[in-house]
Amino acid sequence: MARRDRLTPRTEAMTRISHLKATTVSIGRAALGAALGLGLIAALLGTAPGRAWAQDAVQAGSSATAGAIIPAEGRGPALWVVSDEDSTLYLFGTIHVLRPDTAWGSPAVDAAFEASRNVIFEISNPDDQAAIVPLIQQYGVSPERPLSSLLTPAELADLDAAARTIGATAAQMDPLRPWLVGLTLSVAPLAKAGYDPKSGVELILKARAEAAGKPITGLETLESQVGLLAGLPEDIQLAFLRSTLDEFDDATTELDALVEAWAAGDVETIERLGVDEMRAESEDVYQALLVTRNADWADQIETVLAGSGVTFIAVGSAHLAGDDSVQAILEDRGVTVTRQ
Fold it and tell me: At what angle do helices 153-164 and 234-246 cross, to 10 degrees?
């Protein structure tokens, strides 16, 4: 089946907001949105349990240690190689939040990482709360439109109950824009289930890269990822927040299944849970969050491939599954991609 023409950020940047309007609640509403969606989640939520969210966003710094990872059963997470005559690029799918005891260690991934002279993530500073604070101040605060003027008393009560699970209150979140509160709270239930941004793949690999002196760069920036959400109309942001509150107490069964599939290298299940369900929810959201960004990343990967050497590239697993994955786009362009 022929694939549809792919969008590019350069020609379609102005359509992102309209793409997201249809069913914005799927951006980060459940665990999968946080686990596979935007790399900024670690910077936004890498806070100490039990302390006020508003204080943590300014004061707390978190970084993963480069400790040992429990070996996965079998081959471990999927790994691809993009290559030409003088370049080898390893392409690795990640989960942005994990339980600390998740077994995902892989000799193949370790060898690829060690052989690489540099590392590329979605964003170069996924744990940089100092960088996220100015963005929150610019894009996430609107005291002239407090949440208390936008939500019903019942919704405010639900917000307060949810906020207290991360050491905050509805009053502390009142000056924040709905997208920011919705994204923050979308991950809060995962903490109850033992998921932690500091145990996410990017922070582990970033610590290893820093310890080894490997240069780190990003395919995107924190600001571009924040802008994707902050550009939504207020009514769509509120729909996202209300959906997050409605589903706040839901179980994390689907995320558990996805993490299990990821750790086993089961790309078909990742596609079904992390990609197909997004597309079924909204083709527009699917295009905006995955296809458009995948095409942009493929452009950047081709630029790296035009050079020489060995590079390790780690992005959310949803970007590496399905017919519109980064690998599929590269293969359509005649680039050699093989799974290890």
Answer: 60
C-alpha triplet 216, 217, 222: angle, nearest 5° = 120
Measured CA to CA, the distance from residue 292 to residue 8 in angstroms comes to: 5
Distances from the Cα of 310 to the Cα of 19, 50, 138, 174, angstroms: 36, 42, 37, 47
Whole-angstrom distance, CA of residue 89 vs CA of residue 23: 35
Q: 336-339 and 79-83: which strand pairing? A: antiparallel
Give ∠ CA 153-159-163 in degrees, rounded to 5.
145
Distance between CA atoms of residues 293 and 319, nearest Å = 9
**Spacing of C-alpha 141 from chain mean position:** 22
pLDDT tens-digit series, residues 30-73:
445 556 666 776 666 553 333 344 334 333 333 334 457 899 98
Question: What strand order describes the sheet that includes 336-339?
Answer: 216-220, 118-123, 309-316, 87-94, 79-83, 336-339
- 136: which 2 tokens? 């929150």
3, 282, 278, 79: CA torsion to nearest 10: 30
Tokens of 30: 């459940």
Closest of 179, 143, 184 to residue 162, by C-alpha? 184
Q: Which residues lie closer than 8 Å to 112 by C-beta, 6 or more apart? A: 79, 81, 90, 92, 312, 340
Cut 0.70: pTM above it:
yes
